[in-house]
User: Which sequence fits this backbone?
């Protein structure tokens, strides 16, 4: 792409016609619309397939408006019981309603069936896999890669970058939602996840902070959202 | 009916010698121990002068490097049975002709296989692949086919006249009669079977006996012959002996792959599947280790069976060195291939779940994959149950589940002091008791998302759900200062009839770190908080 030619100094390209000097800005604009050129200020959003989270405010903040499909989403939390699982419940209920399986791989506690029922999950499509932590990673990868599960929830406290990358690739190949719960101190470690959320609990109030997301995020908007007061 | 006779002349050699050993001079001997004679010698031995009938000592004198082993008739019978099992793929009428020939009825399947030349080429090719090179002859009469196979490899006659003509030219010595009958006929002057057929019948019966006359009649077709047919066994049991003791599982994978391949061939011949089989590892001094492989659905692919058997074999610990491995399958149900719908709206999610569950069970244990369900009990630790996905409780496919959109009906009720909440949107829950489960249940799942978007009731749903998402395996004391109570108390008192009597007051509490917990107190006390669940 010869920018000097487009600017009118050499009338060789663009049909070989001479360009008057008044048309230079328009021609330059046309050149910069070329898809091979990335512009930081471009407002266009990439098309990301997502599943709605159930919270309008969170949907508004996330690119695509929900949990990214075919990708790994990390949820970091400091203590159990601040709402990390309830955050996913609307999306999981939607998945079970669409007759897609939800798999809990090696959960730290018992997923209480009456409560899952209360949140709207269809228990016919909920599966729990009991295993050790190492085998749990293998199990998660198999479930994601097979394409027969809608969402896989795993709890891997010691997961290194390679393992996370494998989960991410498995989620992409199986087009499933992968959710990984990690302790809050992993926020400082690098991760290949497509979405990273951290839950901050402070005396009864719970905030959701977006640490990382794909696509274009409008940085003028806040990345921290008050969820529960 | 057109019978093809496969005559395996080297079957005694194959029964006692391996394929690699047959490159050297080998002979099979039989007879009394003091004076064994050679029954069959292979080509290298015959070139050195060893021939059938010669005494072993003389043969060894002629050929110093001769390998001689005693004849193994049971081994030959086993080989013939395995060849009959192989031949069963080509025709359902297979008969054994002891000790070294096989009859296959090919007249009914000639069109399927594209004519006799194509079928003959295929038979020979497959037999060469497993290491046999029989002589094949085809005739309408099985006895004639057997006689002709020994002398004319590749003979084909589908009509009686050419068959009788060819049979007539056969020498008496190769007719399959007893040696006395042969010598008598020779002395009388009959050199070929045509001469024998021309002799008058009553006199012949008196001389050679009715049995030999019946054999001659079967050759000509005057007597009908009904062959006993081979039936494949209803049970698969194959054993592989290992050369040396094996301590770990990786060397067992080669014989396991072979066994799985044989099982797959066996199942293909039966057009069936296997759902349960046993892998038996023999030890020298200790009793054998049995590994049971139970599958969710009948399988018959060699690769699938091998993968599942291998995953289970990897997990067991060998108690002693293994000297033999066997695969036994007795439960052989019919195999029904899965039905794929062309217009299935799902992207093949339902079809891959059984394979995934099978793989997970094989690798993680038979009880690793579990389904959850709520149970009708007030006590929280018994209000849920999980059942392993196993062959006894087959997975219901997504298509047989109900397609109604109403929310799942609550199957339990519990006492709560708080009044029932307002029902939204008129969704009726078919319950006799007014179940005060929060309004989360009353809105259908697909409308909940929209409700959240409208912002109408999510605060009410999320603030005080009545049951926690996490239940601890055992209630633990809650450490730290007395927590801040958000909701409660909820008295749960139940179980006096089965010895699990519980009386607890449950509260939704908030700890100092901001966690929401479900904790209980013994009624009447203010201290001794026991944590039972997290509202995650």
Assistant:
């Amino acid at each position: 792409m010869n920018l000097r030619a487009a600017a009118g100094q050499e009338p060789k390209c663009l049909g070989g016609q001479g360009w008057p000097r008044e048309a230079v800005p328009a021609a330059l604009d046309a050149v910069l619309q070329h898809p091979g050129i990335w512009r930081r200020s471009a407002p266009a959003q990439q098309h990301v397939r997502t599943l709605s989270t159930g919270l309008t405010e969170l949907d508004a903040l996330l690119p695509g408006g929900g949990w990214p499909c075919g990708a790994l989403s990390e949820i970091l939390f400091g203590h159990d019981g601040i709402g990390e699982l309830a955050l996913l419940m609307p999306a999981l209920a939607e998945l079970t309603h669409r007759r897609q399986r939800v798999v809990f791989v090696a959960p730290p506690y018992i997923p209480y069936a009456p409560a899952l029922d209360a949140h709207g999950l269809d228990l016919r499509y909920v599966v729990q896999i009991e295993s050790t932590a190492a085998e749990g990673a293998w199990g998660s990868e198999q479930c994601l890669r097979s394409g027969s599960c809608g969402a896989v929830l795993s709890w891997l406290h010691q997961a290194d970058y390679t393992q996370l990358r494998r989960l991410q690739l498995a989620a992409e190949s199986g087009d499933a939602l992968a959710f990984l719960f990690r302790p809050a101190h992993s926020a400082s470690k690098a991760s290949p996840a497509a979405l990273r959320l951290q839950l901050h609990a402070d005396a009864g109030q719970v905030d959701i902070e977006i640490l990382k997301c794909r696509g274009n995020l409008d940085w003028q908007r806040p990345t921290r959202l008050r969820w529960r007061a | 009916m057109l019978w093809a006779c496969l005559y395996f002349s080297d079957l005694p050699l194959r029964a006692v010698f391996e394929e690699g050993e047959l490159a050297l001079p080998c002979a099979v001997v039989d007879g009394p121990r003091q004076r064994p004679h050679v029954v069959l010698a292979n080509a290298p031995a015959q070139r050195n002068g060893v021939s059938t009938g010669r005494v072993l000592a003389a043969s060894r004198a002629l050929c110093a490097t001769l390998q001689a082993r005693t004849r193994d008739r049971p081994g030959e019978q086993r080989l013939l049975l395995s060849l009959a099992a192989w031949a069963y793929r080509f025709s359902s009428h297979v008969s054994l002709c002891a000790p070294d020939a096989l009859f296959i009825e090919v007249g009914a399947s000639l069109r399927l296989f594209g004519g006799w030349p194509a079928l003959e080429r295929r038979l020979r090719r497959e037999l060469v692949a497993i290491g046999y090179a029989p002589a094949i002859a085809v005739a309408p009469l099985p006895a004639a086919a057997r006689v002709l196979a020994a002398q004319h490899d590749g003979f084909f006659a589908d009509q009686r006249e050419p068959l009788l003509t060819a049979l007539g030219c056969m020498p008496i010595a190769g007719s399959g009669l007893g040696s006395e009958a042969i010598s008598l006929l020779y002395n009388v002057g009959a050199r070929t079977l045509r001469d024998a057929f021309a002799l008058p019948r009553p006199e012949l019966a008196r001389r050679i006996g009715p049995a030999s006359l019946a054999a001659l009649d079967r050759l000509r077709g005057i007597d009908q012959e009904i062959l006993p047919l081979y039936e494949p066994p209803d049970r698969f049991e194959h054993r592989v002996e290992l050369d040396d003791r094996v301590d770990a599982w990786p060397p067992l994978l080669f014989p396991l792959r072979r066994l799985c391949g044989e099982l797959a061939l066996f199942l293909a011949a039966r057009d069936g599947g296997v759902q349960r089989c046993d892998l038996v590892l023999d030890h020298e001094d200790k009793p054998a280790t049995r590994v049971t492989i139970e599958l969710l659905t009948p399988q018959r692919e060699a690769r699938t069976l091998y993968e599942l058997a291998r995953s289970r074999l990897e997990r067991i610990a060998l108690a002693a060195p293994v000297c033999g491995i066997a695969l036994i399958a007795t439960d052989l149900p019919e195999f029904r291939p899965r039905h794929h719908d062309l217009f299935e709206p799902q992207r093949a999610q339902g079809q891959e779940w059984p394979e995934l569950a099978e793989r997970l069970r094989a690798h993680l244990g038979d009880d690793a994959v579990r389904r959850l369900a709520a149970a009708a009990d007030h006590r929280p630790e018994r209000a849920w149950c999980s059942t392993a996905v196993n062959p006894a409780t087959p997975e219901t496919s997504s298509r047989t589940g109900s397609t109604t959109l109403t929310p799942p009906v609550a199957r339990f009720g519990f006492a709560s002091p708080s009044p029932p909440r307002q029902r939204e949107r008129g969704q009726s829950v078919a319950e006799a008791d007014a179940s005060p489960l929060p309004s989360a249940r009353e809105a259908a799942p697909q409308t909940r998302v929209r409700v959240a978007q409208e912002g109408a009731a999510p605060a009410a749903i999320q603030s005080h759900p009545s049951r926690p998402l996490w239940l601890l395996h055992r209630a633990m004391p809650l450490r730290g200062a007395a927590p801040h109570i958000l909701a409660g108390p909820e008295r749960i008192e139940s179980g006096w009839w089965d010895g699990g009597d519980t009386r607890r007051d449950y509260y939704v509490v908030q700890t100092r770190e901001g966690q929401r917990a479900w904790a209980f107190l013994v009624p009447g006390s203010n201290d001794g908080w026991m944590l039972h669940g997290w509202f995650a």
Observations:
- Confidence is low (pLDDT under 50) at residues 396-463 of chain B.
- The radius of gyration of chain B is 38 Å.
